[in-house]
Write a structure and sequence with these properties.
This protein is mainly β. It has one domain. The chain has two helices and eight strands, in the order E-E-H-E-E-E-E-H-E-E. Strands 1-7-3-4-8 form a five-stranded antiparallel β-sheet, with no helix packed on it. A three-stranded antiparallel β-sheet has the order 2-6-5. The longest helix has 7 residues. The relative contact order is 0.31.
Length: 110
């Protein structure tokens, strides 16, 4: 029986949780050096569409380096992203506190 493939960097494919959250594994967090980041710019691909999430809060757990972020409800509704759908995380870049803009934009209508 095969287990899940190890995720060693970007891009990676992962399922959306029931609550609309997406996991950033600890290995990716450490590789990108974003343990300190609170907000990030994230680019995902879903059904051929490339979507840029301009300001997502990186949620952390107590004892691991992994993070999670929530795909905003408006984005999930607009692009029909449902729980257990697979998304491809293409880019994660940390934001400084002065880089806050609109919530999302479509990069490619696929």
């Amino acid at each position: 029986m095969n287990g899940p493939k190890p995720i060693n960097g970007l891009p990676y494919r992962i399922r959306v949780y029931i609550n609309g959250q997406v996991l950033i594994p600890a290995s990716v967090v450490r590789l990108l050096g974003i343990e300190w980041a609170r907000y990030a710019r994230v680019i995902i691909r879903h059904s051929g569409r490339v979507i840029e999430l301009k300001r997502v809060l990186l949620l952390r757990t107590r004892h691991t380096a992994s993070r999670q972020f929530t795909i905003p409800r408006s984005v999930r509704a607009l692009f029909n992203i449902r729980p257990l759908d697979e998304v491809e995380v293409l880019l994660i870049s940390p934001l400084s506190s002065d880089e806050f803009e609109e919530e999302f934009r479509v990069v490619n209508h696929g």
